[in-house]
Amino acid sequence: MIEPITLRWVNQRLFITDQTLLPGKFIEVEQTTIEQVWDSIKQLKVRGAPAIGVAAAFGLVIGVKAFVKLPCAEFIQKIRTQAAYLDSSRPTAVNLSWALQRMVKRAKAVVSNTSQAVFVALVEEAELIHRQDIELCLGIAKNGEPLIEDGMGILTHCNAGALATSGMGTALAPMYQAHHNGKRFKVYADETRPLLQGARLTAWELHRAGIDVTLNTDNMTAYLMQQGLIQMVIVGTDRVAKNGDVCNKIGTLGVAILAKHFNIPFYVACPSSTIDFTTPTGNDIVIEQREADEVGCFAGVRTAPKDINFANPAFDVTPCELVTGIITERGLIQQPIAANLKIQFDDLVE
Prior knowledge:
Layout: E1 7-10, E2 13-17, E3 28-31, H1 34-42, H2 49-64, H3 72-87, H4 94-109, H5 115-144, E4 153-156, H6 173-180, E5 186-190, H7 197-208, E6 213-216, H8 221-226, E7 232-235, E8 239-240, E9 246-249, H9 252-261, E10 266-269, H10 293-296, E11 297-298, E12 301-302, E13 315-318, E14 325-328, E15 331-334, H11 337-344
Helix pairs in contact: 1-2, 1-3, 2-3, 2-4, 2-5, 3-4, 4-5, 5-6
């Protein structure tokens, strides 16, 4: 199988792979301050909904370690403040706020009046979130693998692999499992403008794992489907709304519409931590708007006039009716997705 490559937690020290340098350089960078973790999430040095949740959990540990000598009540208030700060780094992926809320809840639940005991509990919770993310990826791999058949062409968009999680990924996890089981198939990776996560990350990690991968620009997807090269689409997601709408990297909606037109199954893979029953529909999801230079430049070189307007939403929302099914660690959620999500994840419904 595939080794985790996104982040490491060793002796209460956090190391992340700087994904902005891939595929040219594979460099780990130690995160020594909470400000550094915030910046790494904001600048996409660590990215992918599950991965930023884990990174934020460890980042909170790093951020409050210096305050363990404060009285317990003040220490817990510091935890809340630092968690809110980390949560401000990116607005769309629900795993970020989910992990931080879980950390704060654990701190408040400690039956002790010492800050040291609270800190120990925080470390334990962050490490648990990390381990569970790895296990969730394995569950997604197991439940999604039967969908893959020999000879298939599978399209994926952006990066939802090992680089987006602590483990083997979400959308790519069934592919890694199928490859491990000896199935032969081709993966087509959308380039994913404007930051090329498909080209820089997905193509890199699939090729590294020995999986047959073909890179295509985003506007080639319709052609590939028309030519009969694609039999299935699997993508990740940063948030699943209560009604089954899915929010993923910009361009995913277009892929889903094309898949519907060509009668190609469109699957979404995600762990339970990405399902957000507090968000009624995709229309209620805050879409991150990023810097103009990401669109106006390519590989650091300006490709458009400076004095024009730019649009750069980082995500779009795919309505649930375009989704064939959602692959989770608990099984495959099929249509009607909203009703089946509620049944399968009734313990998460508030």
